[in-house]
Design brief:
The structure is a single chain. By secondary structure, the protein is α+β, with helices and mostly antiparallel strands. A 9-stranded mixed sheet has the order 1-6-5-4-7-3-2-8-9. It has a 6-stranded mixed sheet with strand order 16-15-18-17-20-19, sandwiched between helices. A hairpin with a 2-residue loop joins strand 12 (about 295-300) and strand 13. Helix 9 (about 345-365) runs parallel beside helix 12 (about 395-400) and helix 20 (about 585-605) crosses helix 21. The termini are far apart.
Amino acid sequence: MTTMTEAAPETRSFEADVTKLLHLMVHSVYSDKDVFLRELISNAADACEKLRYEAIARPELLGEDPQPRITVTLDPDQRQLTIEDNGIGMTEAEMAEALGTIARSGTKAFMEQFSATKDAEGSQLIGQFGVGFYSAFMVADRVDVTSRQAGADDAAIWSSDGLGTYTVGEVEVSQAPQRGTRVVLHLKEEAADYTQRFSVEHKIKTQSGHVPVPIFLREKPDGEPQQIADGAALWTRAKSDISEEDYTDFYRSNAGQFDAPALTLHYRAEGTHEYNVLAFIPETRPFDLFDPDRAGRMKLYVRRVFITAEARLLPRYLRFVRGLVDSQDLPLNVSREMIQESPVLASIQKGVTNRLLGELDKLAQSDGDAYLKIWENFGAVLKEGLYEDYARRETLLGLARFRTSTSGTDWRSLQDYVAGLKENQTAIYYAVGTDLDRLATSPQLEGFRARGIEVLLLTDQVDSFWVTSGLDFEGKAFKSVTQGLSDLSLIPLPGGEQPSAETSDAVSAFINFVKTTLGEAVSDVRASERLTESAVCLVAPDSGMDRQLERLLASAGQLGQASKPVLEINPRHDLVTRLSALGEDEEGLREDAAHLLFDEARVADGELPVDPRAFSARLGRILLRGIGSA
């Protein structure tokens, strides 16, 4: 146990979010508490890797202790568990910052989900949300962290019982590691098993056996440490020597996850550039997948030396992939900023991205069910590549899966779609919205449904962007069913019949009347080919922006002025023909009907009436008239 200097350490309060988080940890009832051991060992390994990188430019930091190591010490008599590394270490200020606050976003979301989970689900969230150090309070009444930064002449100690405050201050150098960090857990009575060698050794080998730093275990404070993990880099070994369990254990340790990888990619590239790749696609979706500030999770090593986790080894639309790349060609002594501009790294990025997309395609062909699980979690992110990555659009379109107006809950590929094209169909039709059920029943689909034409139902925000970027699939352009003219007259109905394209003079006159009455509210009013059941619908002008994209841009404050929609009227609908038959003496009713038709189309499109009070008054007059004539 460490001792402090005579100067009293400073007592500070945790930030509010940490206090709430610690309350959850301290009062946790989860049965799988082993997560804390993996998280603390992972932190220790990261500290050793950081020192190894810094020592490239400053070898004196290693002193007379050049070999990185992690030492776990058991003390059954004092009910203590100690995890010590000889890594980079921390200053007093760094300890207060790193252990007293949570810098990354998502803490509130973590606590909400953590409170709602049970048993092992909670331990999965700990890794998923990146708050691993605090998991120590699930098993400890108090945690003492003593650290001495590499090359520093002083040391510091941080201590807390996890109940809202912590102390931090200087400590005698003789009571601190020569270099690195020592974490002492004063275990709760029910956590005494974590001082038993067999139990702890098994947990370490299972969870952290593949960290790239040797791990030693000491049974007693004065015992001789014995190596239980050699720190050999898993990615340098032959695939034939690695089991599925080994890959899963490494993934959990490296990625901070507690699920299993849905896809594992391990290979060595040789030729112009040599590098090892070990990449995983998670089985579950990270909570911050759509955070605009979320970076990738691929780490860059150079000849087994950790360089950075921010090297942008994959495009943003693959930011859910976890793992690492270990290059043999990049220089060790170049800055992290310079590495990012390296043509070698650009070549690695290209090779890894292409290989990963190729593996996804292989999985889609060989195991459709497994691939669909990945698509359901990450398809919305992969589709960002359709908008951002022009060179790989064809590959990404082949990987894309969609729900359609004819598929129900099943997913369809574009290859499936094209195979089912109707006679004279020259486009891939789609509808964009936010709700799948509303899209499937929207009036704009009626004419397509009557002809058996499949329509892609797109509900992800990115869909509004990639469909407008001018791409096609096998020569078939993408065309919105809610924009411009529908061109349905070229595609026959089942049985060959075709509805009359002629509109009676009375209906034509009524359509013109509606256009005049609505005035500036619409850009046009016209007879519709796409409606078969509903009386009206709204569509975007031929040269206008898709209405869903307009809504997204408007909500983001990036739209100056929205375009005016086109109101399409079904000339064959009974309501329209009856309204068309009204005489000039029913001018007031006709005007009310014109506005109500427009508001009806807005409501069907998920919008409010233009003027709710005027809408209510018109509806009241129509109802009174109906009651009076009953």
